Automatic annotation (TrEMBL):
Keyword flag Oxidoreductase: yes
Name of this chain's protein: Glycerol-3-phosphate dehydrogenase [NAD(P)+]
Name of the gene encoding the protein in the UniProt record: gpsA
Pfam family, one: NAD_Gly3P_dh_C
Domain Glycerol-3-phosphate dehydrogenase NAD-dependent C-terminal: 183-319
Record's function text: Catalyzes the reduction of the glycolytic intermediate dihydroxyacetone phosphate (DHAP) to sn-glycerol 3-phosphate (G3P), the key precursor for phospholipid synthesis.
Alphabetically ordered keywords of this record: Cytoplasm, Lipid biosynthesis, Lipid metabolism, NAD, NADP, Nucleotide-binding, Oxidoreductase, Phospholipid biosynthesis, Phospholipid metabolism
Reactions this protein catalyses: sn-glycerol 3-phosphate + NADP(+) = dihydroxyacetone phosphate + NADPH + H(+); sn-glycerol 3-phosphate + NAD(+) = dihydroxyacetone phosphate + NADH + H(+)
Residues that coordinate or bind sn-glycerol 3-phosphate: K109, G139, K194, D247, S257, R258, N259
Similarity section: Belongs to the NAD-dependent glycerol-3-phosphate dehydrogenase family.
Gene3D superfamilies: N-(1-d-carboxylethyl)-l-norvaline Dehydrogenase, domain 2 (1.10.1040.10), NAD(P)-binding Rossmann-like Domain (3.40.50.720)
Source organism of this protein record: Streptomyces amritsarensis
Length: 336
């Protein structure tokens, strides 16, 4: 008899917990690692994550631990679900504990500050594993809807298609439909840039601007992501799929989106410090907008919406001034 697939999820936040539910519903034996023993105990005894999904009962084949060595032992898939800017430090501590030949799976949608590296590049460097053992899960996957088992599709990407197919089988359920891809670069960039555009659309909503503005920002934001992706060797078609347009639409349209909500508060006139104070979860685009802009600069790619978000978020530029400057740029053909 074939043993169940063993999966470990490092991180008991909203997306880590939701993806653990998916893996468990797909038949995996799942271990959740959490830093705080109170959350670990609540998961093991009460079958809920009280911080994120207090009303959602977790499957019986999920257990939690605060011991990273215990969590990592024997895992076929090791899923990393921590804030992108903390990945390097966390993974450095976990790397010696990883099971031999485990596939490392990134749920993170960010670009590292300073290095401008994608999350799979950080994983490859820190864990010293080949790209063929690193996979990415991305797409329109708002965690609360996944935890409620509402229908959703996603992309699992790995340069080794066979590994992507293994992960696809490990997380395929009646409500979660994963597709495979070998375009890791495009999938990661789609996820990172959409957070920045989500901030921009949120700012516009907070300013009271309408659907024409939102549609324009989404479309031109997608053009920015595609330009950057092509410059870095990604397949442009990736950006018209779930990892690009699908994720972008969900992020820019939903009040469940952290980045959209963060941007809305900025657009209403709150300061960065005030907005951070009322935000309970990490809005990846707040820090990644700067690293995305840095990445674009390194590749000579023009990303005016991204640059505008950086100006508002990190340089304190008033939203009305930033909007006027963005709209006042020189006219050009759309396909450029």
């Amino acid at each position: 008899m074939t043993r169940p697939v063993k999966a470990t999820v490092f991180g008991t936040g909203s997306w880590g917990t939701a993806f653990a539910i998916v893996l468990a519903d797909a038949g995996c034996e799942v271990t959740l690692w959490g830093r705080r023993t109170a959350v670990v105990d609540a998961i093991n005894t009460g079958r809920t994550n009280p911080d994120y999904f207090p009303g959602v009962e977790l499957p019986a084949n999920i257990r939690a631990t605060a011991d990273p060595a215990e969590a990592a032992a024997g895992a076929d898939f090791t899923v990393l679900a921590v804030p992108s800017q903390t990945l390097r430090e966390n993974l450095a501590a976990w790397a010696p504990l990883l099971a031999p030949d485990t596939v490392l799976v990134s749920l993170m949608k960010g670009i590292e500050l300073g290095t401008a590296k994608r999350m799979s590049e950080v994983i490859e460097e820190v864990a010293k594993v080949p790209a063929e053992r690193i996979a990415v899960v991305t797409g329109p996957n708002l965690a609360a809807e996944i935890a409620a088992r509402q229908p959703a599709a996603s992309v699992v990407a790995c340069v080794d298609e066979a590994v992507a197919q293994r992960l696809q089988a490990a997380c395929h359920t009646a409500y979660f439909r994963p597709y495979t891809s070998t375009d890791v670069i495009g999938c990661e960039l789609g996820g990172a840039v959409k957070n920045v555009i989500g901030l921009a659309v949120g700012i516009a909503d907070g300013m009271g601007l309408g659907d024409n503005t939102k549609g324009s920002l989404i479309t031109r934001g997608l053009a920015e992501a595609t330009r950057l992706g092509v410059a870095m060797g990604a397949d442009p078609l990736t950006f018209s799929g779930l990892a690009g347009l699908g994720d972008l639409v969900a992020t820019c349209s939903s009040p469940l989106s952290r980045n959209h909500t963060f941007g809305t508060n900025l657009g209403r006139g709150m300061t960065l410090e005030e907005t951070i104070a009322v935000t309970k979860q990490t809005a990846e685009g707040v820090k990644s907008c700067q690293s995305v802009a840095d990445l674009a600069g390194r590749h000579g790619v023009d990303m005016p919406i991204t640059e505008t978000v950086v100006d508002i978020v990190h340089h304190g530029k008033p939203t009305l001034v930033a909007l006027k400057e963005l709209m006042g740029r020189s006219a050009k053909p759309e396909r450029r």
